[in-house]
Amino acid sequence: MSTAQSPAAPRLTSLDALRGFDMMWILGGDSLAYALNKTGSIGITRLIGEQLEHVEWAGFHFYDLIFPLFVFIVGVSLVFSLDRIIEQHGRTEALKRIFKRSILLFAVALFYSGGFSAFWPDIRLLGVLNRIALCYFFASLIYCYVPLRGMLAIGAGLLIGYWALMSFVSFPDTRPVNAAGELVSERMTATNVAQLNFSSTNRLRGVFEPGLNLANYIDSKYLPGKKWDKTWDPEGILSTLPAIANCLLGVFAGLFLQSSRFDDRKKVAWLIGIGAVGVIAGLAWSVQFPIVKKIWTSSFVLVAAGYSAILLGGFYYLIDVLKFQAWCQPFVWIGMNPITLYLAENIVGFRKVASRVLGGDVKAFFDSALTPGFGDLMLSLGEIGLAIVVAWWLYGRKIFLRL
């Protein structure tokens, strides 16, 4: 990890802006959703609030796009960064960079999840940053050693292979049973691994229910440490495979942006068009393989990557083609220091700081003088605003934390 004094080379401004746009929702989108729902007397605020919350299981809201969009952006970015390193220093240096960055990011991920503040087994080994590290590592190695057709085959193989595993490989029905051997509930009700019925002789396949599917079973059986959802983890072992495919789809977008075969406007049209095809294909696939973020189903990856490509095309058109850039500067500030801000939110908490100005009686005043929930809305806007100010301060002093 190092602190660079300036960006190493000319960058794709739209990519930095899209990364910052994505991070902005991570830094306060959930609290904004909560605030909008509390002011939900107006239909549009309820609709926006719903879209800024994760779907409970199957389905897709805007907020379900945030994580896969970041993974997609990682794929786009590695094309430009690794090509530059290979051209200037060779493939060996690129490999050193891949291993170093992946290890550091995974270490930061462990720290973010609490590090060694808890006793084993209450330490989480897989999480959001961990998944990003793994996706970057494998997608980068594939990019360095596999030609385009091979990468396409690997990406398709990961999505189709994951679907085949989840649909056709059987696994024990681990739902808890009572003393008579009868199911306690049709749905998975276990709150810890010890309650699971690993001795069950009843086998299931093609089931995609919470806690009751192949990916969750593998986590319950083989993933050590703390699991985010008690007996399984949304960033678990098997679901990392389609996440790598998600990153490779970003690689394909990066290669397309880098190509000189098409002019910029055609690139925009192709990105938006292919993105729309991805969304439609994912929706069609969801008839059999539901769109579920918590197990990163292949249909979810296609829908998320499709929307990601559409957003990339839109940002690229506005920012790098039309050169309409003034509006996106706050996003650029955030996008240049995503890990720094992510850690700052975890360690310090922008909402905690904002509440020192906008909490207590100030929040109560807005709630009583305007409408219930407006105080929370102001607090959430203050939280996001504070993150933007910190990002602006770092950007203005050319402080960019690199891994």
Task: Please tag this protein with its features.
mainly alpha, 403 residues, 4 strands, disordered N terminus, 16 helices, single chain, two-stranded antiparallel sheet
Describe the structure.
The structure is a single chain. The chain has helices at residues 13-26, 29-38, 43-51, 66-89, 91-112, 128-145, 148-168, 214-222, 240-258, 264-285, 298-321, 329-335, 338-347, 350-358, 360-369, 374-396; strands at 2-4, 171-172, 203-204, 400-402. Helix 7 (148-168) packs antiparallel against helix 9 (240-258). Helices cover 62% and strands 2% of the residues. Residues 1-9 have low confidence and may be disordered. It has 16 helices and 4 strands. It has one domain (2-167, 236-402). The chain has 403 residues and is mainly alpha-helical.
Query: Could you say which overall geometry the principal axes of the C-alpha atoms support?
Result: globular
The secondary-structure element order is EHHHHHHHEEHHHHHHHHHE
Characterize the largest beta sheet: strand count, sense, and whether it forms a barrel.
Answer: 2 strands, antiparallel
Count of helical stretches: 16
* Order of strands across the main sheet: 1-4
Secondary structural class? mainly alpha
- Domain unit count: 1
Strand content: under 5%
- Proportion of helical residues: 55-70%
Radius of gyration: 22 Å
Query: What is the mean predicted local confidence, pLDDT?
Result: 91
Q: Give the total of beta strands.
A: 4
Oligomeric status of the shown chains?
Answer: single chain
Low-confidence segments: 1-9
Distance between the termini: 5 Å
